[in-house]
Amino acid sequence: MAESITNRNDAWREELRSRHSTKQRTSLPRVKMPEVDPAYRVTCVDEVNQGLSVEQAVLESRRCLDCPDPGCMKGCPVANNIPGFIKNIERRNFAEALRVINETSVLPAVCGRVCPQEKQCEASCIYNKMKKQPVAIGHLERFVADFSRESERQKTLAGELVKEDTPQLAPQPLAIKIAVIGSGPSGLAFAGDMAKRGYKVTVFEALHTFGGVLKYGIPEFCLPNEIVDYEIERLKSLGIEFVKDCFVGKTFSYEELQSAGFKGIYIATGAGKPRFMCVPGENLPGVMTANEYLIRLNLLDSQAYAKNPTSLAGKRVAVIGGGNTAIDAVRFALRMGAEKAMIVYRRSEAEMPARLEEIRHAREEGVEFITLSNPVEYLADENGFLSTMRLQKMELGEPDSTGRRSPVEIPGALEDVPVDLVVVSVGSLPNPPTSLPDLEMTRQGGIVVDNSSMKSSSPAIYAGGDIVRGPATVILAMGDGRRAAKAMAEAFEQRLQSLQL
């Protein structure tokens, strides 16, 4: 890949740093993201965060100190050149800022919305050592992507020719066909990097829409579908072919992929297999997993869902779990007319793994948090439908292997809570591939890979994302895809070089 198109020693960056002192920059307060009012947003699926204005983005970018050894980059799983794009925002060169991001990320509008920046890039920002709020890196990344998309839209409306802004790399002398199984963030990141290297990439998706978990797992009030569709169109402009309604292993086999001329395969099928808690009554009508629930709401027409026997209008909904998926699910319930929406979590709120912003939004919208509680039984009414969840009250004991204090049962402390629908959101298991040979698998159904290259035990098959690491973040899945693309491309190039010698 080419060297970065911006460098800290560039004359313009040195001049930009000299405009304001460190004291002036660090005295600026962190920007506040404009948000839709909670009373209105629970009535629709409009995106909650409205995005920064140009002036807000430029002012926030001024807070960045352009550190000589930027910790933010070390905290980013795809190694985005964060100071590089932020300094371009400060000088109002937004097109150049996007080009910098595009060096390492194929989904900036997505990452700017759903990545846990407070645990990654922003967690490593120098401002934390000053006991100040970090630079709003995620908000700025989103701004750059959104500004570019809106500019293209305006040009299109004006009848101007819109060309892809991403610099195209020269293709390899020998085009090699690569198959990507799954169109989620890991598959898309891999496909984008391979296409930029000149490979002929085809993405196969089992569902009727592209985007994987970005479409079926994340509600539109967090990540609008049009954003995902736009990013996929950008990838298509690189020459990537997308094929939907195609379940590799059933629609056609691995051998048929080989016969079609595909020399390399990247498996990114995600982790959509449901995980259950094995609680009595879990099979009652009215208890479902988060995957089933979110797929119904995200991929099927909401009106059709509302006619379903499990309509949420006027219902009491409880979501079990404390991750981002759980928070998304409970907030969705309110938007679908639930009378009461509850989060049930076995630890305290301080231990919740969900993003702090998501938790705050949920609380503002009226979600009830029932913490230090764990379901031990679901009870039915006289018609056999779910009516009650029995909760075991907990207290925090010693820290577990993750550093969080373990929940411990309080003997005899049980509570019955009336409920009409329970959504179990306690994780999921990998979607194991079908008919792919010689793959070493974990006991949970994940693919075993070499962590440095993402290569599996089968020749020319690489894998990444949730199928390897289990349910994780979008940006970690993208990091796997980029690492796999680099390793696969290098393997092919070494082989071609040896053939030419």
Which radius of gyration do the C-alpha atoms yield?
A: 24 Å
Adjacency order of strands in the biggest sheet:
3-2-1-4-15
Strand content: 15-25%
Low-pLDDT regions:
161-173, 302-310
Number of helical stretches of at least 4 residues: 19
- Tell me which oligomeric state these chains represent: single chain
Task: Tell me how many strands there are.
Answer: 15
pLDDT averaged residue by residue: 91
Fraction of residues in H or I helices: 25-40%
**Broad structural category:** alpha/beta
Shape: globular
Amino-to-carboxy terminus distance: 23 Å
Largest sheet: 5 strands, parallel
Write a structural description.
With 501 residues, the chain is an alpha/beta fold. It has 19 helices and 15 strands. Strands 3-2-1-4-15 form a 5-stranded parallel β-sheet. It has a 5-stranded parallel β-sheet with strand order 6-13-7-8-9. β8, α17 and β9 form a beta-alpha-beta unit. The longest helix is centred in the C-terminal third of the chain and has 27 residues, at 474-500. The radius of gyration is 24 Å and the shape is globular. The two termini are 23 Å apart. The relative contact order is 0.12.
